[in-house]
Structures are given as structure tokens and as C-alpha cells.
Specification:
- The chain has 450 residues and is an alpha+beta fold.
- 51% of the residues lie in helices and 15% in strands.
- It contains 11 helices and 12 strands.
- The N terminus is likely disordered.
Length: 450
């Protein structure tokens, strides 16, 4: 028997119990760490922006009287306690000149000029030496270079102090936020805990109890509705099983009583009626066999899975007719067969043979006149009809005939399980079975083509 639930779905294969509160704590901790890291990165970037802003002010100051390449010697080599270096570029990006205190020309960064008018600016992290561009009056671009160790140290100390202050403020706020969210989570899940407590009382003694939906959060509402729907189906199945057991007990009680009386007569009689006893035993065996078959088909409907089976329905129909042909001949009844060759359908061959056998026996025992079996293909379905020349079943009683222990005539010697077994087998093959409206003595099975 396959497992009732998948460990991957239920989580029963793992010992770690997942907690919503724990997940929220992890999420809050992650948000806090990411927020603090973002603040640190932002402050670090602000440091370099401040360095470039200071150097840009200085660069504009030293180049205020410089008009072009002929004025390069007027640029100061030291300014505000720091050494300056220069690289001059033409408007099209060619190196025109660089100062002798540089080992190589500094790279042109025109993007910094374009970013000055943008509302969103992101600069790469700077090193010990920073560079800023200045556009001169003749269209050339002067890259100003400086090692700003003193300014960098001052800005670092200032921003580090600000980062410590932010951390001191964020830690208490984080603790307060965590406490508030945990309290809010506890308050929000209070209806869920109450519903879970009520759900513990749902069982065979109280099958009508359901999870209350009134105060549940909207996110959990669909889960509770699905659980209630599942409980409704389980309650219906449980009630059906109770009726089945009660009906089975009722049906078994009569033949057991008759058998007991016949055994008492046989014990007191010198000539027991052995044929009658054997007939009662056959009836008992048939009833028990059909009960077991119906229970097996009910279980099969819940265990279906894997690749669908394909039945050679044409061959199966001929085999079923051949097996019952001696019974038809014994009762001098005719069976007409019209079967298309090579038809395939979805389903289990043996079970479909049992279903067809039940229909043929039903027509033989409870019907009248000739019996006709027809099998053909129609679009994506395979149609099988079994009918006789009897009066059939009134339309208002046709659906009820597929219920367990339902007989057309209570005096009938049948068990009332044949058509119930047929319907279960056909439904397990994703098919349908019903009486034909215009021919109440004909049953039609429709199966998906294989």
C-alpha cells in the first residue's frame, strides 16, 4: 500500500519544526544587517564624494585664471598643504600635457562633469589619490590630481563617529521593533491557535465540527476553507462507510438466518436438503465476494497514480462474451455482438472485463429477450452498450440503481452490488456509465480512448 502522504509535502521526514515566529526573527535580523551594511556603504561612498567635492572647489580656484594650454605654467604645485598634479586633455580626449611631478598622465573622467547636473550620482570608491576634471575656457579639460591624506583622515573620523552613533540608535530601535512585531504576530495568530484547538476536537464523535473562519487572517482563510472542505468530504465518506457496513450487515443477516435454519433442519432431518444448503452458501459467497470487490475498487480510486493503463477493449469484450456464452445457451437466450476491431481504451483490462461481465449477467438474469452488445469508437471515446428487450428501469429510478444494495425488485435473488461495482470500475478508468434515455433497458459505458 503506498504512503498516505508525501514526506516532502508534510515535512514528516524532518525533525526540525518550522516556526513562523522564528522565520520572522530571521527575516528581521537579515533586514537589520542589510540596512546597517547599506548605511556603512553609503557613508563610505559619501566620504569619497566629500573628498572629490573639496578637490573640485580647490581645482576651480587654482584654474580660475587659466584659459588654455599656454597657461599651464601658472598652475600652482602646492595648495592648502597638499601637492597637486595636472593632466591636460583636448576636447576630443587626447593628452596635450601633464605636469612633471606625475609619472604618467591621469585618466580622463568626463563622466564626472556630466554627473554634476544629475539627481542620482554614484561614484567609484577612491584610493589615496583622487582626480577631478575642470573644463577650461578654450574647451580643453584639466584633470587635477591630489593625495589628500589629511582631509581623508578627518572625514573618516567624522563618518566613523556618525556610524557609531547610528548603531547606538539602531540597536534599541531594532529591539523595540522585534518585540512589537512578535507581539503583533502573537496577537494576529490568536484566532489560528483557537481554531487549531477546536480542530483537535474534530473526530468520529463530532464529525460535524469545523474550523471557524470568522476571525482568521485573510492569508490563512483559504487554507482553513480547504481544510473544512476536506473534512466535509471525509465526513461524507465516513457516513457512506457507516451506511455500507449497516447495509452489509442487513444483507448478510437474512442469508445467515436462512442458512442457520437450514442447518438446524439438516441436523434434525435424516434427509438434509443439501442442494438448498449449497445454494445458500453460493449466495453467501457471491455476496461476500462482491463486497470485497467493491471495497477494493473504493480503495483503488484513492490509490491511482503513475502512467495510465491501456486495455485492448475489443479483445476483452469478446473474451467476456465467450465466457458467458454457455449460460446464455443454457437459458436459450441469444446474445448479439457488434464489436469494432483493434479498439483501445484507458483502464485495467481485468477490471473492465469484470464490469462487462456484471452487465451481461445483469441482462441475462434480470432482463428479457435477446441481449445485444455493441462496441465502437466515437471521437476520443470508446462506447460500449449492453441492452436487452425487457422493460428496463424507469427514468426516475435509474440513478438509484447504481447505489449499493439497490435492487430493481426486492424479491430478486441478486445482491444489489453489481451496478455499484460497475460504476466504481468505470469511474476509476475516468469513464462514465449510465442508462440510455431512449432505451431504459440499455446501459452505456463511455471510456477515454487509449
Amino acid at each position: 500500500m503506498p504512503p498516505l502522504a508525501d514526506d516532502k509535502l508534510t515535512g514528516s521526514g524532518r525533525s526540525v519544526r518550522r516556526s513562523l515566529r522564528g522565520r520572522m526573527l530571521v527575516a528581521l535580523l537579515l533586514v537589520f544587517v542589510l540596512g546597517f551594511a547599506n548605511l556603512a556603504v553609503h557613508l563610505y561612498g559619501t566620504r569619497d564624494e566629500l573628498r572629490r567635492a573639496v578637490l573640485a572647489i580647490q581645482a576651480r580656484a587654482v584654474s580660475e585664471d587659466v584659459q588654455g594650454a599656454e597657461d599651464m605654467q601658472r598652475l600652482p604645485r602646492n595648495y592648502a598643504g597638499g601637492e597637486l598634479g595636472y593632466t591636460l586633455y583636448s576636447a576630443d580626449g587626447k593628452v596635450l600635457w601633464f605636469s612633471e611631478n606625475l609619472d604618467r598622465p591621469r585618466r580622463l573622467r568626463t563622466v564626472m562633469l556630466e554627473r554634476e547636473s544629475s539627481w542620482w550620482r554614484w561614484s567609484p570608491f577612491g584610493g589615496e589619490v583622487i582626480n577631478v576634471p575642470v573644463r577650461l575656457a578654450d574647451g580643453t579639460i584639466l584633470m587635477v590630481t591630489r593625495n589628500d591624506a589629511q582631509e581623508r583622515s578627518t572625514i573618516d573620523d567624522l563618518l566613523l563617529d556618525r556610524l557609531r552613533q547610528s548603531l547606538v540608535i539602531m540597536l534599541p530601535l531594532g529591539l523595540v521593533s522585534v518585540s512589537l512585531i512578535l507581539w503583533l504576530l502573537h496577537w494576529t495568530l490568536r484566532p489560528v491557535r483557537r481554531a487549531a484547538q477546536l480542530a483537535k476536537g474534530i473526530g468520529p464523535r463530532h464529525p460535524a465540527r469545523r474550523i471557524p473562519l470568522a476571525d482568521l487572517p485573510g492569508e490563512i482563510h483559504p487554507l482553513a476553507e480547504a481544510a473544512n472542505s476536506a473534512l466535509d468530504r471525509l465526513a461524507a465518506a465516513y457516513a457512506a462507510e457507516r451506511r455500507f457496513v449497516a447495509d452489509a450487515a442487513h444483507e448478510l443477516r437474512t442469508p445467515l438466518t436462512v442458512l442457520d435454519l437450514r442447518l438446524q433442519d439438516a441436523r434434525d432431518s435424516q434427509n438434509p436438503d443439501w442442494p438448498a444448503l449449497e445454494q445458500e452458501m453460493r449466495q453467501m459467497r457471491r455476496l461476500v465476494t462482491q463486497l470485497l470487490e467493491l471495497a477494493r475498487q473504493d480503495g483503488a480510486s484513492a490509490e491511482q497514480g503513475g502512467a495510465p493503463r491501456v486495455a485492448k477493449v475489443s479483445r476483452m469484450a469478446r473474451e467476456a462474451v465467450a465466457a458467458l456464452l454457455p449460460l446464455f445457451e443454457a437459458q436459450q437466450r441469444t446474445i448479439e455482438v457488434e464489436i469494432e476491431d483493434g479498439l483501445l481504451c484507458r483502464g485495467n483490462t481485468d477490471e473492465l472485463r469484470d464490469a462487462l461481465t456484471n452487465l451481461l449477467e445483469n441482462a441475462l438474469v434480470h432482463g428479457a429477450g435477446d441481449v445485444r452488445l455493441t462496441l465502437w469508437q466515437e471521437k476520443d471515446s470508446v462506447i460500449l452498450e449492453v441492452g436487452d428487450q425487457g422493460r428496463g428501469v424507469p427514468k426516475e429510478d435509474q440513478e438509484a440503481m447504481f447505489q449499493r444494495f439497490r435492487k430493481g425488485r426486492q424479491s430478486s435473488g441478486g445482491t444489489g452490488l453489481g451496478l455499484a461495482i460497475v460504476r466504481r470500475i468505470v469511474e476509476n478508468a475516468n469513464g462514465t456509465v449510465a442508462f440510455v434515455d431512449e432505451r431504459p433497458s440499455t446501459l452505456r459505458i463511455e471510456l477515454p480512448r487509449g
